[in-house]
Design goal:
Protein name: Lipase domain-containing protein
Keywords: Secreted, Signal
Family: Belongs to the AB hydrolase superfamily. Lipase family.
Strand content: 15-25%
Order of helices and strands: HHEEEEEHEHHEHEEEHEHEE
Number of strands: 13
Radius of gyration: 19 Å
CATH superfamily: Alpha/Beta hydrolase fold, catalytic domain
Helix content: 25-40%
GO molecular function: lipase activity
CATH topology: Rossmann fold
Subcellular location: Secreted
Shape: globular
Distance between the termini: 41 Å
Number of domains: 1
Largest sheet: 11 strands, mixed
CATH architecture: 3-Layer(aba) Sandwich
Bound molecules: 2-acetamido-2-deoxy-beta-D-glucopyranose
Strand order of the largest sheet: 4-3-6-5-7-8-9-10-13-11-12
Length: 345
């Protein structure tokens, strides 16, 4: 079965990257790439340190429950871009000890599985944002949980998301700070944590950007433990790795760089190409904050986009930090396989 899956992925990769002119994937076939496919009962993963892990998705999860002590917040600002002030998620009264400025906007960044506050996703996005914008940044660290098995992490997403949502609600009350000044970006499982935090604030955050939201063990039908349209005033999703994430649109705006199946420059061995494509989502987002120019074209299907049939449709910019009134819908774009990724127009 695994071989079949690898072959499928290689074929899709081939289809996506090299077959610019053949087009026959229907929307429902595209959506089959979602990991809701019950046959996918495990996946291979290369972590940031190059170790390969095999996660069996059908094994019985160890039962453990995330506590508030497992979730910390690393506060950064223009005056302390590299020396965080560390708070627990219950320490809303200690925010006063940071450079938190309630007249400025706020960004929460939420990492994924096996990551922590110092992982590339946080370093890159925090760096890109603070370089250009004078805002409050909270990097969420849930590594006490994220270092465990994938199944155990999935089982705790709702609890962790609610802890953060409660922190935000309390922060908002204490500082009379409007929820509409708060933005969130989450990668992989972190996208779903951001989604739950957003639900906990009644969808009133300015926006949530989900970077390749994790697919395995999540479903289209059950929305309480995952990122969904409605979790913020605007939800954007950047899809980079169909077989590890949600390929179906789940936001207001859904962006598919290079078709969203696998990314150029990531055509490596199977497990490495998936991890590489999955990480590409935050690399693209960080660049969209510092440079921009990810012009994307509205289109219903990658195949149609590839054929040039959507060329005259309206355009939108993927990602970015400051934006207003982005359109809803599915958007496609090409990128380079190495930085700078944006190809502009
Ligand atoms: C996954 O775990 C289940 C239950 O422990 C076991 O039956 C199955 O063989 C495992 N699958 C793989 C691919 O290791
Ligand atoms: C924050 O909010 C939660 C839920 O509304 C509450 O239980 C908690 O005591 C509040 N206070 C702090 C300091 O987090
Ligand atoms: C907070 O930010 C505002 C606007 O940039 C600034 O005028 C004010 O001095 C800042 N407050 C503190 C305590 O730094
Ligand atoms: C944080 O995660 C990175 C991988 O993203 C790892 O290399 C590093 O050792 C971790 N640091 C801590 C303090 O756990």
């Amino acid at each position: 079965m695994f071989k079949i899956r690898v072959v499928t992925i290689l074929l899709l990769m081939f289809f996506n990257i090299f077959c610019e002119a053949t087009a026959s994937l229907s929307e429902s076939e595209e959506n089959k790439l979602d990991h809701e496919d019950p046959q996918s009962n495990f996946f291979l993963w290369q972590d940031d340190n190059g170790n390969i892990r095999e996660e069996n998705l059908t094994k019985k999860p160890e039962s453990f429950t995330a506590q508030t002590s497992d979730v910390n917040l690393y506060f950064y600002s223009k005056s302390n871009p590299n020396e965080p002030v560390v708070l627990n998620v219950l320490d809303v009264n200690k925010v006063i000890k940071t450079k938190f400025n309630s007249s400025k906007e706020c960004l929460f960044i939420v990492h994924g599985w096996l990551n922590n506050y110092s992982s590339p996703v946080n370093v890159m996005i925090k760096g890109a944002v603070l370089e250009k914008y004078d805002v409050n940044v909270f990097v969420v660290d849930w590594s006490a949980i994220s270092k465990n098995g994938y199944i155990e992490c999935v089982a705790n997403i709702e609890r962790i998301g609610k802890f953060i949502g409660h922190f935000i609600n309390n922060l908002s009350k204490k500082y009379n700070y409007p929820l509409s000044k708060i933005k969130m970006v989450g990668h992989s499982l972190g996208a779903h944590i951001a989604g739950v935090a957003g639900k906990t604030t009644n969808g009133q955050l300015k926006y949530i950007i989900g970077l390749d939201p994790a697919g395995p063990l999540f479903t289209i039908v059950i929305t309480k433990n995952r990122l969904n349209k409605g979790d913020a005033r605007y939800v954007e999703v950047i899809h980079t790795t169909a077989s590890l994430s949600f390929h179906s649109p789940i936001g207001n705006g859904d962006y598919y760089p290079n078709g969203g199946v696998l990314q150029p420059g990531c055509v490596l061995s199977h497990d490495r190409s998936l991890s590489c494509s999955h990480s590409r989502a935050y690399e693209l987002y960080a660049e969209s904050v510092s440079v921009g120019s990810f012009v994307s074209t509205r289109c219903g299907l990658d195949a149609t986009y590839e054929l040039g049939l959507c060329a005259n449709n309206d355009k939108s910019q993927m990602g970015g930090f400051v934006f207003a009134d982005k359109p809803d819908g599915k958007f496609y774009l090409k990128t380079s396989g190495t930085p700078p990724f944006a190809l502009g127009n």
